[in-house]
Amino acid sequence: MIAVEHVTKEFGPTVAVRDVSFRAADGEAVGLLGPNGSGKTTIIRMLAGYFPPTAGRVSIDGIDVGRDALRARQHLGYLPESAVWYPDMRVRQFLEFCADVRRLHGVARRQRLGVVLDGCGLAEVQHRLIGHLSKGYRQRVGIAQAILHEPTVLILDEPSVGLDPRQVVEIRQLIRELRGRTTVLLSTHILPEVSSVCDRVVIVNHGRVVAEDSAAALARAQQRGERTLLRVGAPAAQVAATLRALPGVERVEVEPGDDGFAQVMVTTTQGAPPLAAAVVQRGWDLLEMRPLAMSLEELYVRLTSPPDDPPAA
Amino acid sequence: MTFLALLRKELRAYFVSPLVYVVAAVFYALSGFFFYTQLVYFVQYGFGLNIIGNFWVAFLAGAPYSVSMVLLLVVPLLTMRLLAEETKLGTIEMLLTYPLRDGTIIAAKFTACTVILALLLAGTLAYPIFLAVSQPLPWQPIGVSYLGLLLLGVSFTACGLFVSSLTESQVVAAVGTLGLLLLFWAVSWNEAATSPAVLRALAQFAMFDHFETFARGVIDAGDLAYFTAVSAFFTFCTMRVLESRHWRGQR
Asked: What domains does chain A contain, in order, with CATH numbers?
């Protein structure tokens, strides 16, 4: 269990985190979502006991991190943001060192080392120097050391940075497997990561919690604001006028196109097919059409705007 | 247990890097050269038969051609990476969020460097053993002088560990430590620059003066206390620097 209660962190005159509160129940996976510089890492470092909050209280499994840091850290597995380990240690050597520091002995030590080496796909590189590994493998080494001692709370700061798509899928699978047994807090600035792994999402921006909701609600909010980019072989003004007239279209933005093509971004609640149909009906060439992911900033606006914003009922 | 794991990690870090071998080579080359020149000087001009008073003290403590001076040069190179590298790599964040006390981390680093120093100094035992072949040596004062060398080295290490905790650049750590140690060495030199009272006070801080009594084979409780105090002071400062992440305005 993770509890963050009215936490503020000031670095001299700058306030990095302002009155943040959220909880993660036992076995729950919570995503901490926010753009770079929003205070995610600061919150996480306070939870890991790296530095204390200026005001407020953080606790792990009910243990006050400020008061009893050593005991709290025994419950915690932590992947820091910059996953750079000792470059002149070998993977296995490093994990053995972590096991010793975590006071794992004998059979448990051997068994856990085997489990994480296999589970994180490190078995074939276990005798290589960490400094010679690719970023993806180093990230896995970091995850391996975080789950080595079977922590009840696992905190991962940007776990999929620098991984290739296949590795990202593997890491997410690994986190999903832990869900239920382990409380997971995962920070990221990538939307799909949260919706695929987490039960609940806490969105922070400028050091404040701007929204807190279930991952399902987040996914809905995302769909609600579907944006589509179209490139049409016709004058931009005509295209924009035609699309604006369609039902469900909220916004049409015209981008300066090239070669006499119109490039428009359409926000609609009715999905993409009516747009294509309208273009084709007019006899225009539809050159390109693809969905645009909603940016985090837009999502914040959506999630934080009052619910009178009518959803597509 | 955790201390031993940390100590093993620190010692391994020393032995896998080429630096410690280069440092050892320089240390033995210089101390060997000084041993040879001081011995030739002693034999040629023979200040009586007191080999401890006239040769051994000069070889160990007679700046600048002495083992203690070489120690002053090499210790900053051994201590520079201890905390600066961890800060640079970011691994310090991992260590500080493991269930470890700050004190255990510092103690392991300190002990590892002391072990390296002791190994370096043990190598120089070849010199008195070489002498003993042709001339019977009083081993007790030589033992005491080695204790003094180790204490001096430990004080240097405490100082170097402190400077290393202040920066993430190993070069800055090495240069800073060297500067601080040289200041400790030179602080009582210029008698004209200070009033006698101030000089008396400053002289108390001159590390080499406190070492000289050991080199002569005398254990002085005051000097023993001095080296203990210097090491304790710098270790205390290092602990406070690590702790400063709690209130400092960055990272």
From this structure: 2-221 (3.40.50.300), 226-293 (3.30.70.3100)
